[in-house]
């Protein structure tokens, strides 16, 4: 089935609220690696698939087993037993320009053979494999066994399109090149392509051991060779490009209603009491990964709020910063908190960025690594917020960024417009409709 250039076209898949199951339920393996923010869109897909009579099996890091089983899903451990809350690991990944190289060359590529064997076992008897881009064996398994494969890309940077240039974490100056001629952008894209090729030797060797042809670009482009590619971000954030694979469907963001964890009992009540007791606060958060290596982010944020004489909520439970005007909490449901914020300050992870955009509130993005600098640049281009270098996130400099958002109403007005548009999207339903069309066509 040809999915050419589809972007949020519900008529192609029925009504956005139309469950489309016309065939018996399928066993669908959903494989993902990453932070909790990365996992949430896959949980949203799993919930929607289950509601339509399918049997989703979630394969991910053992760290998430209890959370996933508590939701009633079949769980399968996949990949090395790393903790996304390990401060040393997060520091290495988030606070160094070589974080992406470490992620690929040290954390995942050495384990591809074992992960392939695990995934092959999990997919035995399955009708479909849905996988995130860090599940490196997924494209290989699909090529070798023929299992239908859906690739999920959560961020625009995953496409590395010269038609919509991304800001690479090791090359932040690329922000200045946006709008330069296409020939220049095509040359720039070759830089990360060369890095991926240099890192890919273990993956290429493993392909050869399976009797598959050599593919020097497998590490970078394997995710694009699925039967269906789901671009699970809003066209307000990044529009479809002419070099995207023809079998790509852009769905919009997948909104996930976060489940309450026992260790967070009473947190929402504390947040509600604080919100109801005064003016809208500035919300400072670092998502679910960078929060474990925050440096002095929360300390400087509290000082900036104090300089502005504004209330604040610090999500991440930093110690020693609570006061009558500052609430610290270990966790927050962004969908409930962000719409009531005056300003949202965050790290730019795609999950946090999606919820900030959806809330319709202005934002300051303090990016750490990976897709975050690119997401920050897109927030700036949308006119809904500002980017602030994390190394310069000191109370005085932070104060300047925040005061600019307070004094310039255009940011709040534009954020409200974008938020209204994004809230009309239903990325989860659109994605599952596309998945069911793929299943029905086979």
TrEMBL record:
Pfam families: EryCIII-like_C, Glyco_transf_28
UniProt domain Glycosyltransferase family 28 N-terminal: residue ranges: 28-150
Gene Ontology molecular function: any one: hexosyltransferase activity
CDD domains linked to this entry: GT1_Gtf-like (cd03784)
Keywords, sorted A to Z: Transferase
Gene Ontology annotations of biological process type: carbohydrate metabolic process; vancomycin biosynthetic process
Residue ranges occupied by any Erythromycin biosynthesis protein CIII-like C-terminal domain in the UniProt entry: 324-420
Name assigned to this protein: UDP:flavonoid glycosyltransferase YjiC, YdhE family
Species annotation: Terriglobus roseus
């Amino acid at each position: 089935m040809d999915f050419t250039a589809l972007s949020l076209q519900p008529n192609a898949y029925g009504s956005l609220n139309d469950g489309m199951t016309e065939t018996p339920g399928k066993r669908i393996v959903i494989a993902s690696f990453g932070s909790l923010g990365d996992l949430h869109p896959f949980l949203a897909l799993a919930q929607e698939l289950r509601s339509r009579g399918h049997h989703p099996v979630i394969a991910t890091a053992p760290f998430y087993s209890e959370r996933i089983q508590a939701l009633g899903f079949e769980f399968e451990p996949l990949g090395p037993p790393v903790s996304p809350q390990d401060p040393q690991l997060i520091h290495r990944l988030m606070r160094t320009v070589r974080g992406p190289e470490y992620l690929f060359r040290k954390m995942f590529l050495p384990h591809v053979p074992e992960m392939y064997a695990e995934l092959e076992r999990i997919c035995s008897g399955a009708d479909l494999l849905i996988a995130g881009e860090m599940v490196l064996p997924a494209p290989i398994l699909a090529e070798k066994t023929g299992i239908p494969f859906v690739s999920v890309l959560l961020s625009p940077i995953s496409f590395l399109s010269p038609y919509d240039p991304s800001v690479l974490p090791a090359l932040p100056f690329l922000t200045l090149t946006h709008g330069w001629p296409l020939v220049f952008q095509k040359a720039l894209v070759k830089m990360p392509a060369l890095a991926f090729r240099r890192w890919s030797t273990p993956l290429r060797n493993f392909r050869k051991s399976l009797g598959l042809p050599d593919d020097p670009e497998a590490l970078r482009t394997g995710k694009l060779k699925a039967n269906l590619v789901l671009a699970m971000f809003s066209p307000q954030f990044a529009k479809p490009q002419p070099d995207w694979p023809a079998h790509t469907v852009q769905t919009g963001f997948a909104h996930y209603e976060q489940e309450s964890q026992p260790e967070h009992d009473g947190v929402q009540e504390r947040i509600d009491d604080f919100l109801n007791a005064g003016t809208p606060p500035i919300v400072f958060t670092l998502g679910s990964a960078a929060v474990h290596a925050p440096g002095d982010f929360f300390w400087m944020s509290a000082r900036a709020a104090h300089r502005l004489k504004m209330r604040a909520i610090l999500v991440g439970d930093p110690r020693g910063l609570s006061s009558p005007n500052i609430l610290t909490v270990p966790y927050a449901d962004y969908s409930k908190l962000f719409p009531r914020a005056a300003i949202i300050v965050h790290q730019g992870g795609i999950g946090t960025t999606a919820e900030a955009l959806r809330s319709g509130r202005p934002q300051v993005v303090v990016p750490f690594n990976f897709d975050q600098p690119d997401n920050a640049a897109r927030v700036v281009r949308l006119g809904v917020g500002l980017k602030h270098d994390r190394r310069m996130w000191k109370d005085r400099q932070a104060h300047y960024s925040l005061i600019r958002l307070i004094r310039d109403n255009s940011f709040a007005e534009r954020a409200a417009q974008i938020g209204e548009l994004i809230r009309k999207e239903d990325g989860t339903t659109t994605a599952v409709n596309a998945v069911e069309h793929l299943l029905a066509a086979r």
